[in-house]
Design brief:
Bound molecules: iron/sulfur cluster
Structural class of chain A: alpha/beta
Distance between the termini of chain A: 46 Å
Oligomer: homodimer
Number of strands of chain A: 12
Largest interface: A-B, 117 and 117 residues
Radius of gyration of chain A: 24 Å
Number of helices of chain A: 19
Amino acid sequence: MREVLLSTGDRVVLYDTSGPYTDPEVETDVRAGIAKLREPWIAARPRRTGSQDTQLSFARRGEITAEMEFIALREGVPVEKVRDEVAAGRAVIPANVRHPEIEPMVIGEAFLVKVNANIGNSAVTSSIEQEVEKMVWATRWGADTIMDLSTGRDIHQTREWILRNSPVPVGTVPIYQALEKVGGKVQDLSWEVYRDTVLEQCEQGVDYMTVHAGVRRDYVPLTARRKTGIVSRGGSILAAWMIAHGRENFLYDHFGELTAILREYDVTYSLGDGLRPGSIYDANDEAQLAELKTLGELGRIAREQDVQVMIEGPGHVPMHKIRENVELQKQLCDDAPFYTLGPLTTDIAPGYDHITSAIGAAMIGWYGTAMLCYVTPKEHLGLPDLEDVKQGMIAYKIAAHAADLAKGHPGAQAWDDALSDARFEFRWEDQFNLALDPQTARSFHDETLPAEPAKQAHFCSMCGPHFCSMRITHELRRMNDAEDAAGVVG
Amino acid sequence: MREVLLSTGDRVVLYDTSGPYTDPEVETDVRAGIAKLREPWIAARPRRTGSQDTQLSFARRGEITAEMEFIALREGVPVEKVRDEVAAGRAVIPANVRHPEIEPMVIGEAFLVKVNANIGNSAVTSSIEQEVEKMVWATRWGADTIMDLSTGRDIHQTREWILRNSPVPVGTVPIYQALEKVGGKVQDLSWEVYRDTVLEQCEQGVDYMTVHAGVRRDYVPLTARRKTGIVSRGGSILAAWMIAHGRENFLYDHFGELTAILREYDVTYSLGDGLRPGSIYDANDEAQLAELKTLGELGRIAREQDVQVMIEGPGHVPMHKIRENVELQKQLCDDAPFYTLGPLTTDIAPGYDHITSAIGAAMIGWYGTAMLCYVTPKEHLGLPDLEDVKQGMIAYKIAAHAADLAKGHPGAQAWDDALSDARFEFRWEDQFNLALDPQTARSFHDETLPAEPAKQAHFCSMCGPHFCSMRITHELRRMNDAEDAAGVVG
Ligand code: SF4
Ligand code: SF4
């Protein structure tokens, strides 16, 4: 949590994901990693014979974990609500028992809408240090989870550094590393290579994994008449593998085995939408919806084994087709938390897809999506740099908060109210400090009125002193009060 | 219209508002003004005795004007539809008979969603040349109308330059200049000063005027318990005047007279929402809705005199309260075109209100709003500069186009489809040229892969060559074709 001290003496408490990095009293050393908050909690737990407990199995037995307590405090809700939502499969707590560094968080419709930031190098660009820096940077701007999508060199090492330093849960897409292990040759992929990769990542502490087990062989022909084919990397890799081998998706065939591995570490499934639409034209088509149905079936199998499940969603969807995505997902996937990429509401603005998709993200969040995967301005064009990560995060924190307001999340509006009060009372410094991005708000104001007295001024350069409507409102309220005092009814 | 020539030889035709400024064959001279497209049309019209015809009176008599023909071509709709929507009061064609320079356009739910850009100096900053430059710049990025909100020095002169050089209709808020005329003293305002100001602006060629005639004396106390009072400049000025004088709004009292003046020039009313909410807390409150009802009544009076009418709307509104705004406006204002500012869907992000409001703008456009007034990143903080104008325009063109798609506007999706085709076929140059902002799209791509061959490459730096899902899709389609040819069913 972050406390903003106002000039009035009041304090506003905001949800904060940046862990020790914004705590002035904590020194962080990237080589040592951050403190292991969960270590004593995990150590204190009785290990059951046969298999590891998961947050889901605890919840189903009515037990409250330390993670749930932490979350209840953060979200400002009763801990029983956290437990019950997890037990019902409507919320997940991604928290690998091998990842003690994280501050636990919950993903579910009943809670604050979360934002995930994708980072990770590609073969073309970026280094380990840069990706760790991006992770810290993303949480500084409010990322609730991060996904390490590295596909280039040093995948294991990059992930190790990110895991040991991340205060938020970390997700991956194991098929990327599996493909690197077979030299990038899709046809050489196999269940065995994949399984070993998943084990390696579970051991390291990955909290949730995107698994494209729903891309079944029969669905691939459904994408033939699409404008943009298969745009999920994992989806396209598995489709190519199935065609090369003339066989069913090995992730589908081995789903039970895979589930048993994830259970051992309490790793959460993020069942990937390998056939999500990559253009407005392809939205809500047969391929997408066929896969969604399969994801629902797989989710039931996983939860039977006490493994937590989220379901991934699109993509590119025009506004009038967004609600259908949420309704179908709830119905087909038993209200498992929905985790969507955007969606982008138009294809015409490469370079601004953080905006085309913030529109869709805000709406889909309002309709019930639990976590939004951010899109940066570089989408479709290149690997995001630090500035892109920031712009993507800000657009998505706006979308998530707008959704929290629209859902009527208790407490969400307190932030807006505090900022509006500061604005109306011309407490400029308070307005800046409460802003999602204080530096930018301050620097925009200071571009035209940099002098210190302007921080108390009853106007800014937008309307100027004569036309400042808020200043005039104060004046007319004073006039009104004077009239009232004189007994003249205004 | 703008034609984009693709590398395939195909052409994509896009709606364009930039007039002669982007036509390489036309030289423009800001001192001479641009060509007077409408001059012969206006000259050829018979003047009826007693009073000037308006687009509305023509339409009501079933007559088709040259403006309607021009618009029908631009919008790709039958001219009868333009006429009928205008006749019904569901659409307006803001086109002062004294403003021959504009390329006519229509504002109505049945047509493409339009975007207005506010420009104009304030007492604190900016010059005439800068404001003309902003106007040209705003239309370059797609502004369908511009409002000159100048409040500083040289209001008349600034407006003259803008009018003589603008290819799009120009709106104003006459109370601003009226207030400057009385030295900024609200209590010295009068109907006479206001009327003379309106006449001066009508003569100059202003196409539509924001008139806050709906801020009635009885509504001011309804704002007392608001978080942010009255945030419309015009609204706060008139409220202060009413309290100072203990009298009804002079715009309400003289509305018939004012309407007669506007009719003479075919100036369109934009009935201002002086009591729009300035914060999430104040959204859809009693003050706002009381005024809206009055705007509906005033609209009926104006249309009886054949004066065209738009209705202005909020402001700050959380997502779940947006639809109610549109439904009430339609019902109370007889489907007159709605023209909204944003709305901002949260207050927490000063510096990014082009994004907080693009979310609301896209949604309200989908629900039926005819024109969106842009919000720039400087909202609440200062006067926008050229870069802010561009960022505001782009966010709003995205919102308007997303709304056109969601409304199922015929032809809207062709743009998305052309861009998605180019993307899937790795025609990078076509993708850039079709983008809303080609320069930015190209420069983002080139940041990591600047070399010329990368413009044909079947990947970019986002996923890299091994993981480019679109490249893999092409490969699997080839594999599939090979199998089909060999008689092996995949
Ligand atoms: S001048 Fe305008 S934007 Fe600035 S504080 Fe006053 S009302 Fe707000
Ligand atoms: S590398 Fe990724 S972002 Fe780039 S063209 Fe291929 S699929 Fe699109």
